[in-house]
Design goal:
Elements lengths: L3 H4 L2 H16 L3 E2 L7 E17 L2 E18 L5 E7 L5 E8 L6 E9 L2 H17 L9 E5 L7 H6 L6 H9 L2 E8 L2 E12 L4 E6 L14 E7 L6 E12 L6 H11 L7 H11 L1 E7 L2
Parallel strand pairs: 1-7, 2-7
Antiparallel strand pairs: 2-3, 3-4, 4-5, 5-6, 8-9, 8-11, 9-10, 10-13, 11-12, 12-13
Helix pairs in contact: 2-3, 6-7
Length: about 290
C-alpha cells in the first residue's frame, strides 16, 4: 500500500493526520456505513462548489483544488448530517443540515467559515456532535467511520485514530513498561522512549523525569503530550493518543502515594521504595498523564 505522504500533497497528509487524531479522541470505530446508526465518511474532494440556501438568499462556498471532506450522517428516524471541507490553501467550511419534521424538507441548521484547518476540525466535531448526534439521540459510540481508498489511510493514521478503550491499547498499557512520548519544549518537538507506570484503576499514566537514565527536557512545564504505544516485542505502532499532563508537586496531597507506587515498580535501582520516593521529592518531576478519549 502506498503511504499517505506518497499519495497526497504533504499539507493534505498533515490535515488527514489531524483528522485521525480527532477520530481517536472521540472514540470512533472503523467500520462500514451499512448497519451503523451513524456514519462518518472521510473523503478526498476536488474543486468543491457548494450552493447553500440561507433563508431566502443563496450563496456559493468555493474550495478550489484538493481538500479533505468529512461527512457525518444519521438517516433514521430523520435525516441529520454535517459536512466539512478542509483545505490547505484556502478557507475551510462546516455545514450542518436537518430534515424538517413537518414536511421532510432539508434545511440548513448551522454553517461556519474557518481560516484555520485545526479550528475547522474542532468545529466540525463540536457542531456535528450537537446538530447531528444530540439532535438524533445518538452519540459518538454509535458512529462508524470509513475512509476513501485514494486517501491511503495506513498504519500511521490507524495508530493516531486508536482509542483508549481498544483491546490493543489496554494490553500495551498493562503489559508494557516503555512507551514513546512526544512533547514541545522551547519551540522544539521532542520525542523519546520513556519508562512509565500505568494505574489500571484510575487510567492514569505516571512518568518520572530527573533520574540519570530518564531526563525529559522541560518536564516541569509540560502540559500536553502525545503518547505513542507499540506492540511489546514487535516494532508495530498500536496507537498515538493525545494526553493532558499534570506535574504532581511534592506539596500535593497525592504526591506521596503516587511516588510510592512508581518507586515500587522501578526496577534495577538500589534502595527501598520509600528511600527512592524521598530522594525524588527534591530531584525529580513526577508527571501524571491523562489520555484524551
Amino acid at each position: 500500500m502506498a503511504t499517505t505522504e506518497q499519495a497526497l500533497n504533504p499539507r493534505l497528509a498533515a490535515i488527514l493526520d489531524e483528522v485521525a487524531r480527532a477520530v481517536g479522541r472521540h472514540g470512533i470505530k472503523q467500520g462500514e456505513p451499512a448497519g451503523s446508526k451513524a456514519a462518518l465518511r472521510i473523503t478526498l474532494e476536488n474543486d468543491v462548489k457548494r450552493v447553500i440556501q440561507v433563508y431566502w438568499t443563496a450563496f456559493q462556498a468555493n474550495i478550489p483544488g484538493e481538500s479533505i471532506g468529512l461527512h457525518l450522517e444519521v438517516a433514521e428516524p430523520r435525516v441529520f448530517w454535517a459536512e466539512a471541507y478542509l483545505s490547505p490553501s484556502t478557507v475551510n467550511w462546516v455545514f450542518c443540515f436537518a430534515e424538517r419534521p413537518t414536511d421532510g424538507e432539508i434545511q440548513l441548521s448551522y454553517y461556519r467559515e474557518y481560516a484555520s484547518t485545526s479550528d475547522a476540525i474542532e468545529g466540525f466535531f463540536n457542531l456535528s456532535g450537537w446538530y447531528v448526534l444530540t439532535a438524533s439521540d445518538k452519540s459518538w459510540d454509535d458512529v462508524s467511520y470509513s475512509v476513501a481508498d485514494e486517501l491511503a489511510w495506513g498504519e500511521g493514521q490507524l495508530a493516531k485514530a486508536g482509542t483508549t478503550t481498544s483491546t490493543a491499547v489496554q494490553e500495551a498499557l498493562k503489559k508494557s513498561t516503555i512507551m514513546w512520548l512526544r512533547w514541545e519544549n522551547e519551540g522544539k518537538t521532542l520525542q523519546s522512549p520513556v519508562w512509565f507506570v500505568y494505574d489500571n484503576k484510575t487510567s492514569k499514566i505516571y512518568v518520572l523525569s530527573g533520574e540519570r537514565e530518564q531526563m525529559l527536557p522541560g518536564a516541569g512545564e509540560m502540559r500536553e503530550a502525545d503518547v505513542i504505544l507499540r506492540s511489546k516485542g514487535k516494532d508495530i505502532r498500536i496507537a498515538e493518543i493525545a494526553a493532558n499532563v499534570r506535574r504532581i508537586s511534592p506539596n500535593d496531597e497525592d504526591w506521596e502515594a503516587v511516588a510510592q507506587k512508581v518507586a515500587e515498580k522501578r526496577l534495577n535501582v538500589p534502595g527501598l521504595p520509600e528511600d527512592l520516593a524521598a530522594r525524588w521529592r527534591d530531584t525529580c518531576d513526577l508527571l501524571e498523564l491523562t489520555l484524551r478519549t
